[in-house]
Design brief:
Layout: H1 9-12, H2 18-28, E1 51-53, E2 61-63, H3 65-71, H4 81-95, E3 102-107, H5 109-121, E4 127-130, H6 136-142, E5 148-151, E6 154-155, E7 158-159, H7 161-168, E8 181-184, H8 198-210, E9 214-218, H9 234-237, E10 243-248, E11 260-265, H10 266-278, H11 285-328, E12 333-334, E13 343-348, H12 354-362, E14 370-371, E15 385-389, H13 395-413
Parallel strand pairs: 4-5, 4-8, 8-9, 9-10
Antiparallel strand pairs: 1-2, 3-11, 6-7, 10-11, 12-13, 13-15, 14-15
Helix pairs in contact: 4-11, 5-6, 5-10, 11-13
Bound molecules: 4'-deoxy-4'-aminopyridoxal-5'-phosphate and pyridoxal-5'-phosphate.
Catalytic activity: glyoxylate + L-methionine = 4-methylsulfanyl-2-oxobutanoate + glycine; L-leucine + glyoxylate = 4-methyl-2-oxopentanoate + glycine; L-tryptophan + glyoxylate = indole-3-pyruvate + glycine; L-kynurenine + 2-oxoglutarate = kynurenate + L-glutamate + H2O
Pfam families: Aminotran_1_2
Domain Aminotransferase class I/classII large: 65-405
Amino acid sequence: MNYARFLTAVSAARKPSPIRILTELQQRSPPSLISLAGGAPNPNTFPFLSASIQVRNGPTVTFDETSMKRALQYSASNGIPELLTWMKDLQKSLHNPPNPHTDMCVTTGSQEGLCKVFEMLVNPGDNVLLDAPTYSGTLAALQPMGCNLINVSSDEHGMDPAALRQVLSRWSPSESSRPKVLYTIPNGGNPTGASMNEQRKRDVYQLAQQYDMLIIEDDPYYFLQFEKPWAPTFLSMDVDGRVIRTDSFSKILSSGLRLGFVTGPKPLVERVVLHIQASTMHTSSFTQLMVSQLLHSWGEQGFLQHIQGVIEFYREQRDAMLGSAEKWLKDVAEWHAPKAGMFLWIKLKGITDTQQLIQEKALEKEVLLVPGGVFMIDSSEPCPYVRAAFSLSSPEKMDEAFRRLSLLIREAQS
Ligand code: PMP
Ligand code: PLP
């Protein structure tokens, strides 16, 4: 594929930072190299000496003085090599991307990756397709770019290919104003909890081929799919090199460490890395080395075993929330059971807009939910939904919260 058509002028103009190239060269060279190049500070002046991190049911992660110096120093912009290699092997075994020119880089959370991917591809006035309601962080990254966000209808199975075909029929497949980019959250959507099945993904991919669009697959809840087998990803279907996938460790290892990954066609991942060079330089070396040590000692088997434990926790939380919803909200609300993720998307009966209800009345009743409007392209339009997270509260707290919510709805209805 020729990616030139997809790049913004800013992204196309990015050039490697000469000092970054030297730093990366130096890190690959034998110790006999005397380098007066680069501008790395001397880690002997840094106050941190060593570290030891206890791991639940696992081996301790340790940094002696030598490895600590590396953890405190600048590192390559695409990621620490041993972490990248481990992740590339994992991507291969989970998705086996058919495009031989697939590459990966580490990002500071998937949000950084997404934002840089959008900035690489989206010009003011461009038509961008997504299935709203969608993640508010995506809207926050896209809306200031002055693009036209076009909604593709979705249901509890995510983006609807028939609706996509309908939207795309406004353009001919070669018209220059046709959308170049389609964004979707394929599993446990934030906020809807919706997950796409394989057939829908294949149909969407085919339409992307027909209109020569790129697909941004934002999949932070991939590892939180409650049902096996996990649905094949867009990345696993990508024979052309038109899928850019963002993965996140936020929901499975730590959200505060800020670790994510961009996987996609090499020429596009390269553009993202050039942007990283010019902004954060790289994700924290310490974070990457700490996680890399753990992953290497776990192996893929140990990692997937850890994931299984996380899945079981969230599945129980989901079931508890669904039980309480059934108990308290049956007559006043509607919802679908999510197959992945951490959210329940609830439609309140007889309420036109939840914004005011949540803002003014919910705190009085001591229950907080996210009003659905914040996930809409036009947040001023009335929205009868709220998003409830089953990630943090105990089953008892969720039950009490839904009891309070049911009172709130009944009062607002009358
Ligand atoms: N500004 C100047 C003038 C610098 O020399 C450097 C680092 N060499 C930076 C910014 C970037 O610093 P940081 O590592 O804090 O991103
Ligand atoms: N994408 C979606 C759909 C999310 O729900 C989130 C987090 O809530 C992110 C991206 C950001 O994830 P990260 O913490 O990896 O930046």
